[in-house]
Here is the input.
Amino acid sequence: MKRLSIVVVLLVAVTVGLVQAGNKPIRARNGMVVSQNAIASQVGIDALEEGGTAVDAAVATAFALAVTHPTAGNIGGGGFLVHRAASGDAIAYDFREVAPAGSSATMWFEGDQYSFERHHLSHLSVGVPGTVAGLYLAWQEHGSLPWRRLVEPAIALASDGFTVTHDLSASLKRVLQRMSQYPPSVAHFSKNGVPYEAGENFSQPDLASTLERIANEGPAGFYHGETARLIADEMRKNGGLITEADLARYEPKKREPIRGTYRDYEIISMPPPSSGGTVLVQMLNVLEEYDLASLGFGSAQSMHLIAEAMRRGYADRALYLGDPDFNTDMPILRLTSKAYAAEQRLSINTERASVSSPTSFSWPAESSETTHFSVVDRERNAVSLTYTLEFGYGSGIVVPGGGFLLNNEMGDFNAGPDTTNADGLIGTEPNLTAPGKRMLSSMTPTIVAKDGQLFMVTGSPGGRTIINTVLQTILNVTDFGMNIQEAIDAPRFHHQWLPDRINYERYGFSPDTMRLLESRGHTLREVIDQGAAEAILFNVEENLLEAGLDGRRPDGGAIGTDQ
Here is the structure.
């Protein structure tokens, strides 16, 4: 009964915060958590109100999301965390999945034919998970509450259950067909094959047991012992590659963040194997010399210039970026330099779209189902964290007896050497599969500072659109004068070099603007939505935190505390 009462309190508490959502941000003085699930956000706030740090709250939120947001919240995936201390010191934690020891660059082929199913929808598509180890490392260095205290809310939510929302119910109904080849997955996410309906209670006892082991033993409760045995057994029985040895040797990495400046702001973001920080800073450098504010938000001219910056950033992403431990000559300093941006501006015709060569390179599949959350504590320490399973529900494989989903992140590696073609495959060297290698990502957890003070914490899900969603959220505040909620609500667009087109959110931009862009040579494609930015802005003048919640994903929560 004690655990059940905890869940009820969470559900009541989040309702109060959500009714304030709109074009005005949620405001609080002593802490803020913004995530794609309101229950998880409240779990993070509870940690802050007990005196926890931003990292404590992030760890608690991440484990709660593994229960309440199975689309992307996880312990069987990986991701990235950027931490900025109130002092200004910053560090990046890389807990990206790695390729098992048995991997190879040509493993996605059956004979001489590339297999999408093998690459994305099989046990071979599972990379060695990094989430638990990464969260633990960040907690060791920046946490203050006991580790077990941070995992316990997730245990309660898994054991006692939580109320299924309309969005989760619809999501589960869509994914059960894909899971049909894996009976343990269907059993976990349905009632004897019948999908959960909104309002019903969803409990996950096997996941609760796994979380208990993690709470008691830390990473050893996942990478060794019973949980590791369960993962390895599932792999052995179904042609997967991950072994107990692969799990035992997994290590998260600390990396120096990508740093840049944009006008009066400092940009702190994720380095490779995330492409996000490098491409973000590169695009901001290009745009810095244009007077976007005077051109206006959503004008044809501002959209044209931003799209051209996007085009060039994504081209360089494919050519140069990958795992830094396997690509020691990546030209990161050059790509993020002001001098390189000046060179790129020379190639931009301010009145005419560039042409992306279809024979240069194209892209591997990258799912939009990632999740991001932002945290700031009383002292103004900040965490920006993005993690994922790759596709929604990852591989669709639930570990029998473990109760958690495995990722299909191996699909983020390129298809194979010499496979680049106009049909969408890519074979550029930096992101080919290799044992122990981390696959390239678009995740872009980012922190912005100004005058030595925290200014903004932001990030987004959305696959390859992530970088551009973060870019526009920043520009909307710094150049177009929006508050953080307006910046998130504003319509978005996306260009990624190839395919050579601008995707834009429907109903968001003037038809006249679209016609002007077409007259400049841009190809346009309407999409339903892009990303789900979850951001916090620090209002220095009023000493208040202001949060923006993205309504594109309906179950989110922007919750603050004045305690």
